[in-house]
Design brief:
Elements (H helix, E strand, L loop, with lengths): L2 H10 L4 H12 L8 H12 L2 H18 L7 H7 L6 H10 L5 H12 L3 H7 L8 H19 L1 H8 L3
Helix pairs in contact: 1-4, 2-3, 2-9, 3-9, 4-6, 6-9, 7-9, 8-9
InterPro entries: PgpA-like_sf (IPR036681), Put_PGPase (IPR026038), YutG/PgpA (IPR007686)
GO molecular function, one term: phosphatidylglycerophosphatase activity
Protein name: Phosphatidylglycerophosphatase A
Amino acid sequence: MSTELAEAMLAERGVSVRAIADIVFKLQQKYHPGLTMLTCEDSVRAVLGKREVQYTLFTGIALDKLAERKLLPEPLQSIMENDEPLYGVDETMALGVTSIYGMIGLTSFGYLDKEKIGVIDTLNEESGAIHVFLDDLVAGIAAAASSRIAHNHPGAASYTTGTD
């Protein structure tokens, strides 16, 4: 498995690293005035480099594709086609991704799940496609990448060392 394969699978579904990085930038720019898109893209790629993230992404995308082809057994097929609000498995998988850089990812994910920023909104609006898992996984990846940036901020180190 590789980051490149994860990126290719995302691109096949209309999601670029840049689009996810744009969400990360929007989440973190207020806290990091010198933040660049390159830093955000690097953070997204670091998240995509985690094997558990890759496996989760591959599983979610496969289920979305199977649903588009009407290859899932009932009642799962109908649940996926209707993006049943009480299904919750898609959010549960994405929450695993959010936690790889600490609990701050959870709050960012909740915000993104409600606000549907950037490509997350686009995925939800795409006619004829099923992105039950992908929209939440993109939110999870963005939340994790945002958390990674927050954890790497120089100011965060002062809390653990006792200096300011």
